[in-house]
Amino acid sequence: MTPEVGMQLNMSNGSGQNFPVTIAAVKEDVVVLDANHPLAGEDLIFDLELVAIDAKSMIIMP
Questions:
Q1: How many CA atoms does the CB half-sphere of 16 hold within 13 Å?
Q2: Residue 57 region, left (φ>0) first, then alpha (ψ -120 to 50), else beta?
Q3: 3 CB-near residues (< 8 Å, 6+ apart)
Q4: Residue 61, C-beta contacts closer than 8 angstroms, at least 6 positions apart
Q5: For residue 22, which of 10, 31, 33, 11 has the smallest C-alpha distance?
Q6: Which of 2, 12, 18, 38 is surrounded by the fewest CB atoms within 10 Å?
Q7: pTM of this prediction?
Q8: Could you tell me if 12 and 36 are in contact, meaning their C-beta atoms sit under 8 angstroms apart?
Q9: Cα 28 versus chain centre, distance
Q10: What pLDDT is recorded for position 59?
């Protein structure tokens, strides 16, 4: 495999969980990987609908 900037790979942590990484830079003897979530740093907009408020779980601040 020839590593190229932007190429996506799967890595595994010590527990065997897989996670995606992106090649951020390729240097002579080093490949820099970016393991941030693909949406990291992006502005996110959510459309929410409040369906109920549970008074038992509310925290009342003095």
A1: 0
A2: alpha
A3: 23, 26, 31
A4: none
A5: 33
A6: 2
A7: 0.62
A8: no
A9: 28
A10: 75
Confidence at residue 60, expressed as pLDDT on a 0 to 100 scale: 74
Structure-token match 């799967």, residue found? 10
Which pLDDT does position 26 carry in this prediction?
97
Residue 16 corresponds to which amino acid? G
Place of tokens 């969980």: 17
> Residue with structure tokens 């459309």?
47
Tens of pLDDT along 38-59? 899 999 999 999 998 887 776 7
Q: 17-27 b/e with 16+ CB inside 10 Å = b?
A: eeeebebeeee
Q: Which two tokens stand for residue 45?
A: 């907009």
To the nearest whole percent, how much of the chain has pLDDT over 90? 71
